[in-house]
Amino acid sequence: MILVNKNTRVLVQGITGRQGSLHTRLMLEYGTRIVAGVSPGKGGTQVHGVPVYDTVSEALENHEVDASIVFVPAPFAKDAVMEAASAGIKLIVVITEFIPVKDAIKMIAFARRTGSLVIGPNTPGVISPEECKVGIMPSHVFKKGVVGIISRSGTLTYEIAYNLTLRGMGQSTCVGIGGDPVVGTSFEEMLMLFENDKETKAVVLIGEIGGDEEERAAEFIKKEFSKPVVAFIAGRTAPPGRRMGHAGAIVMGGRGTAQSKIAALKNAGVLIAERPSDVPALLEEVL
After folding, report:
1. Is 246 a residue of the active site?
2. 160-192 in b/e burial notation, b at 16+ Cβ within 10 A?
């Protein structure tokens, strides 16, 4: 598994909000070690038994923290991420959507300078099944196993993971890198982590139209990735110029089409699923 495990100590930024409170409870029920929350002006209170602080630095004076999950509203998300990064938190999972692109660029660049890894924004999070969930995904669809998943789509992650689980094929770690035009991590970076993870025997890559993430992933797979990869690319029938679902899922000027991504991945030896339900059978061929 990568990024998170049963020992990961988690801080929730925006813990007193509706979404923050709800998912704190669900993560706690899953077994995630949430040690503290942050919500300015709410210091000294508790949410589901988790102590709340006014600032990240105050929380870190009282707790050791490995990862933060951000539920802060979009106008304030940049400051929340930069606060976590400047405090030395190495993994920052940004659930918030509709963050302005300029804010996303600034916060991600700042995090990289401080040595922090940002997952998202607009991500369902990260889950190492039966170990730790730092996100909003429905935990019942996941099962511990040897298949890593990297995805730009939350709902497709759930669907494909559930199909794998039904076939008795568990997952090592599932990572939603986010569906926005600017995100903190790439397919390549996650593939590199899975390459070095002894528990992961194969990877499912879930892409979609827009950008060139999948093409760059294909180059990495061809040159440096030794494990089998199965991919599903969403948006094959999308009309050019129209955004489909995610802000990053838009084809402009012939770039970022499903066809170009599929061709690049096939050239790298990746097996391509026509439908999400085809992924388990393709994995069975290579495992």
Report:
1. yes
2. bbbbbbeeebbbbbbbbbbbbbbbbbebbebbe
DSSP string, 22-69: HHHHHHHHHT-EEEEEE-TT-TT-EETTEEEESSHHHHHHH---SEEE
Name 9's bridge partners: 33
Contact 84, 68 (CB under 8 A): yes
How far apart CA 206 and CA 227 sit, in angstroms, is 16
Dist CA 70 CA 84 (whole Å):
9
Phi, psi dihedral angles at 123 (to 5 degrees): -120, 150
Length of the chain: 287
Q: Which pLDDT value is given to residue 193?
A: 98
Q: Tokens at residue 106, please? A: 């600034």
Q: What is the pLDDT of residue 208?
A: 87
From 287, 269, 249, 87, select the one nearest 156 (Cα to Cα): 249
Put the strands of the sheet holding 46-47 in their side by side order.
46-47, 50-53, 33-38, 9-13, 67-70, 91-94, 117-119
Q: Give the model confidence (pLDDT) of 157-215 as tens digits.
A: 999 999 999 999 999 999 999 988 899 999 999 999 999 999 999 999 999 887 888 99
Closest alpha carbon to 89 in 63, 71, 128, 125: 63
- Residue 249: pLDDT band (50, 70, 90) is very low
Catalytic residue among 23, 63, 140, 246: 246
CA atoms of 248 and 210, how far apart (whole Å): 6
Contact 42, 55 (CB under 8 A): no
Over residues 7-62, the pLDDT tens digits come to 999 999 999 999 999 999 999 999 999 999 999 999 999 999 999 999 999 999 99
What is the widest separation between alpha-carbon atoms in the chain?
A: 56
